[in-house]
What does this fold into?
Amino acid sequence: MRKWAPLLAVCMGTFMLVVDETITLVALPEISTSLHASLDALAWVVDGYALALAAALLAVGTLADRWGQRRVYLAGLALFTVSSLVCGLSATPALLITMRVVQGAGAAGIYATSISLLRNTYSGRERATALGVWGAVASGGAALGPLAGGILTQAFGWGWIFFVNVPVGVAAIVLTARAVPASRPGSERARLDVAGMLLFALFASSLLYGTVRAPAAGWSGTGTLAALLVSALALIAFVLRQRASDHPILDLALLRRPAFTAALIAIFVGMFTAYGFMAYTSIWLQSLTGLSPLQAGLVILPSAVASMAVSVMAGHWLRRFLPRYSLPVALLLVAAGALAQTGLTPASTGSRVIAGLLISGLGMGMVFPAASSLAVESVPHRRAGMAAGAFTTFQQLGYAIGVAIFATVVAAMAKTGLTGHVTDPRATAQQLTSGGAHAITTQAPAAARSALEHLLRTAFVHGLNAVALIGAILALAAAVITALALRRETTATQSHAEPDTADTVTPVNS
It folds into this structure.
């Protein structure tokens, strides 16, 4: 049992931060009432966490290579635990949003080091098992978030969705300090590309800020365009900086490794598709089908169970089947699951989407261990932290950008369906997308409420059908791209292998 204590410590931290990405979704109405928060403030309660996490991941992964993986992991756990306590005690929206940003920074320290810690601690069959279990926690945690949020919010109040992290975080800190072996800092410890870190943080935060603002302000809005322009310029400057730097935070040569690139594409598209519109499925279930937060979480539960079960088994499968086959097949399952969630009608209930969520869960249960294994095994050992940071950065960007873009699509489709039927279709569509269906219907005359409710159901499911179809197409395209990329992996790893035996790359099909 002692040999699996490091795995338990890493999984405890990972579970906390993954659950916190989605746990707030079902608690937003109570947070709004309790703190008198506006819809914009509620959006930042969710997106402020994802923004800070995505912006900091790459820099933290590089810092971990220099300062030691365990040291950075412990720092992330401590910051996450303390900020969780303050989140639960927050009395104003501003304090809650600020602490969510701090939470995201702490989560970056946890996430950027988790894979590397497992890789450094385990080898061979044990490493495959560890990555499978970690993948189960990472993939299942996001889907379990709404269920956990529903239970805690209904039973104890919204603050407990954050308080529950405190004992888990303290236990993880103690277990990590005792069981996880200390990692040796890299030889480049004193040399940090601070300019590169700041440029990437500016790129990621501006990109997420622009996409988060777009559903409400419009893609052509001044603020949205300015944020996206800053993001583009920061990305260009970041690439130029990395090419010129002797100690980059992202070695661009890694992107020429087919397996590494395939892993990034797979996790980005998988998160974008499987979890990007899950937030709107949850809103539809609660605001238009009449389910409670707990009941909505139970509809999503099969996806989490399937994902976790498959991830555990996938760790063993990866020793038998080539990732070049398992990763494209996993993405095909994600595509099939999204496609199965199309065809909703105004009369549809939660049972209509369970099968699609289940299939997507099966796919993501394979994507996590297969893609994470490819990401760290296809690069030199000294780049493990960098690779893990890039992998988790793409994971978070996929989720956050998916949520924002799908919000735009759902709102646009809803506006189309409402045009000609309500006085302000754009404002009504925005309110509907944010879960305000009940408020819309209660403002209408009693005689017109039944027809209005049917209209709102029709408008919302048109949006859900559209985002599900878009997600299916993207996942199918990613399956084809990763299959083609991984066919070249053997040749690519041989041609890019470094002569230093300490940095020898393990071929994916070994």
